[in-house]
Specification:
Layout (H helix, E strand, L loop, with lengths): L1 E5 L4 H20 L6 E6 L5 H6 L2 E5 L12 H23 L3 E4 L6 H10 L3 E5 L6 H6 L5 E4 L13 E3 L16 H5 L7 E5 L6 H14 L4 E5 L5 H12 L8 E4 L4 H10 L2 E4 L4 H8 L3 E3 L11 H10 L4 E3 L7 H12 L2 H14 L4 H17 L1
Parallel strand pairs: 1-2, 1-4, 2-3, 4-5, 5-6, 6-7, 8-9, 8-11, 9-10, 11-12, 12-13
Helix pairs in contact: 1-14, 3-4, 7-8, 7-12, 10-13
Length: 377
């Protein structure tokens, strides 16, 4: 049995794939069948170690993002994608997987085009409340479509779509408490705030947090995940702001936080400040109150981050702070309100846990196996 994964080069696409792959391996152990051969086709491996650890072979297929506005780069990206499609057709003809699981994004286009031409079954998963262009297109010929938000179901054929939740790695449902404060050098008697702009970081969020970090550190400890492009600048500015105070150790800055450190953050965080991508589902798995700041609608296609944020906020698990309203004083006021309100924290915690779905990856893995077995026969 062969299963191929494909998706764009972001953590929001990649790590749900890893979550499903983990469940496929676990099912093969529990139910005593030969583990499927797994492959990942994209324009980059994203995380080579995660692929290696899960026995997933990487297949390169060049592709380029087609911007919705005029850009000379669209022409070159079209050529890259065409070359990727030709290469994918040949690779998949030789490999001929039994089913393809796609998370969407421009990097999935070569594999999806090849699958359609070769008649390989496709399962699509959409993690946003408003689907991307590639998933809407692929949903027309996919065997099944899974969505994380009920709001996204209306974009796909009724007979194919199911609300599956978002696949989350099992580790996220088991935060680490023992030794977590010591790992970060934090005081266990103080609340901890985790700030993350996703795998690429968010310059505006980082800048706003730096403006209030000295004041916030009087009552809490802060972990800032900046993204690689913002790391040096934010580290220097935080060091400058905190220098000479007795609270320098209360703010830690990282460009990237690995899975082990994330589990410890899940164990000690009192509040998370985040963009509105797939990180929402990880926060929900932890059951931690959050301030969600959707990205600018001019940057994010279909304003999906804003719609994601409000879909989550309707559960009572978070408060939403619009990007246009992201001012240091407003953010500080919201932080203070939540940290000083134990009842607010309790209700947000309960709402977050009720939103989380620890069966999503398993559900999708079982569907992939069912389709793959029927294709084999």
């Amino acid at each position: 049995m062969k299963i191929l994964f494909t998706g764009g080069g972001t953590g929001g696409h990649f790590y749900p794939i890893i979550a499903v792959a983990e469940e496929l391996t676990r099912l093969s152990d529990e139910e005593k069948f030969v583990p499927p051969q797994m492959y990942f086709m994209s324009d980059g491996p994203y995380n080579k170690r995660a692929l290696f650890d899960n026995n997933i072979a990487y297949l390169y297929a060049p592709s380029g993002n087609q911007r919705i506005y005029f850009s000379p780069r669209n022409f070159w990206n079209l050529i890259k994608t065409a070359l990727g499609i030709l290469g994918a057709i040949w690779r998949l003809y030789l490999l001929f997987p039994d089913v393809i699981f796609s998370k969407g994004g421009y990097a999935s286009v070569p594999a999806l085009c090849a699958a359609r031409l070769l008649g390989i079954p496709v399962v699509v998963h959409e993690c946003d409340s408003v689907p991307g262009r590639v998933n809407i297109w692929a949903g027309k010929f996919a065997a099944k479509v899974g969505v994380s938000y009920p709001e996204a179901a209306s974009f796909f054929p009724k007979e194919k779509v199911a609300v599956t939740g978002n696949p989350i790695r099992r580790d996220f449902f088991a935060p680490v408490y023992a030794g977590a404060h010591e790992f970060f050098g934090f005081d266990p008697t103080l609340p901890t705030i985790y700030v993350t702009g996703g795998s690429s970081g968010s310059a505006k969020m980082n800048d706003t947090v730096v403006d209030i970090v000295a004041e916030v550190s009087k009552q809490a400890q802060i972990i800032i995940q900046t993204g690689k492009n913002n790391y040096d600048d934010i580290l220097k500015r935080v060091s400058y702001v905190m220098q000479g105070t007795e609270r320098e150790a209360r703010c830690k800055v990282y460009d990237y936080v690995n899975a082990s450190a994330l589990r410890m953050i899940g164990g000690i965080a009192t509040l998370v400040i985040s963009r509105a991508g797939s990180t929402i589902f990880e926060i929900a798995a932890w059951g931690i109150p959050s301030i969600i700041i959707p990205g600018d609608s001019a940057v994010f296609h279909n304003d999906h981050q804003r719609k994601n944020a409000y879909a989550y906020a309707r559960t009572g698990a978070c408060v939403v702070l619009e990007d246009k309203n992201l001012k240091p004083s407003i953010l500080y006021s919201e932080i203070e309100r939540i940290l000083e309100g134990p009842e607010i924290q309790k209700s947000m915690h309960e709402a977050a846990r009720s939103f989380a779905d620890d069966q999503s990856a398993l559900r999708i893995a079982r569907e992939l196996l069912a389709i793959a077995l029927s294709h084999e026969s």
